[in-house]
Structures are given as structure tokens and as C-alpha cells.
Amino acid sequence: MVDVSNSKPVIPLASYDPRSGGQGRNPYAQHxxxxxxxxxxxxxxxxxxxxxxxxxxxxxxxxxxQEGVTGILNAFDxxxxxxxxxxxxxxxxxxxxxxxxxLPVFNRRALFREMSRRLTVAxxxxxCQTFLCFxxxxxxxxxxxxxxxxxxxxxxxxxxxxTDGLRSSDVIGSLDGMDFGIILALADAKAAExxxxxxxxxxxxxxxxxxxxxxxxDVAWGMHVITPGDTPEEIVAAADRDMxxxx
Length: 247
Hints:
two-stranded antiparallel ribbon, disordered N terminus, single chain, 2 domains, 15% strand, elongated, 6 helices
């Protein structure tokens, strides 16, 4: 028996936000393909088994009315299926928008957007946050010796090592090339420096395995304690200068 009295309301696509209701973006998830098209729902042949439709007993409907209602329900099933598919595809596209092309981190645009949001929160809550900049060195020599695929593998491993060493409240993203940016929440200069050294050691003690070779990575880092009035561009530039001074 089919009960249409508890059917889900149709939400206009323009008002749908997949970031609500537990379906938020997940830039750290593995890349995935677009959602497959779901199978078509079974076609209803009759509504004679429906106890109540809009308060009217099915037994009181004429055959022509039942045929018309059956067509409406079939169209409703088809539209609901298409809407669910569109929602899944919107979620997929929004996840892809924030992702690096192959690394399991935010891309530069998404990192800067998150940095701007964190700046606003920090100013209102008066909390300390620190930005770390990491550079993975010797990629040119690796490119010449082992090829581009080895460089991609090394950057992917470094990104994963950095991500594994962070808290859920921290944010990591690519600054393009061989550089990564990290926003450490509730971290002053001392805590950030300890974290940076730990992350650097973790990467350097985890050589990349490539075609039987063990390739060690060289890591440099810099930091900048975020202050009210900073812009994302100024924060990255300050951390980059600090990295150069430490070398």
C-alpha cells in the first residue's frame, strides 16, 4: 500500500544549500566521480490500493479519476528523483570548487576565503591564531631524476602528513606550487613554532617511496601571528618573509 500523506515536500532548487543538514563540503575527502544517475522509480499502474489520497477514499474515485491521479503520482515520482539527482550534483560541484586539483587540501581561493572568515571571527572573539607557511624543497631535482608523477606523489604525501598532524579546528590549503598554508586556531607564537617543527620533522622522517627508491623531502617553514586588520595577502607575505629569514 502506498501512503502519499507523508511524502517529503519539494524544496525549490534555488533555496537548497547542501552545506546544511549534515551535508557540508569536505575538501579533505578523496576525489570522487560525479554521482551516478539513479534508476528510474517503478511506474505506478494503479492507485486502487491507496487508502486515502488528499482525504478522498480511493474506493470513491471513478476509474477515470484514478487513472488521472496515477499519472500525477508517476510524474511526481519522476520529478522527485530528478531533484534528488540535482541536489547530489550540486553538492559534488561545490566540493570540487574548493578542492585542489589533486591534493587532499583546500585550493588557494578556498584557503584565502577561510582566512578572511577566521580574521573576522578572531577580531570579534579576540582569540589568537597563527598562520604557517610550508615549502617542500628539491622538487626540481626530483622532477629531473624521477619525473612529474614522483613530484605529484611527494606533494600528496606531504599534504597528507601535514593534514594528519593537525586538529579538526585547523585549516590547510595549497598556496600553489610546492607551498602549503595552515591556519592554526587558538595558537600563539610559541605553540605555533612547536607545531611547525613537529610537522617539519614528520615530513622529513617520512621519505617518499618511488620505484624502489627512498626520496627524502626537505622542508622549510615560516609563521605569522595574525593580528586585527591583516589581510590574507599580508599574512602570507609575512609568513613567507619569516621563512626566508629562518633559512
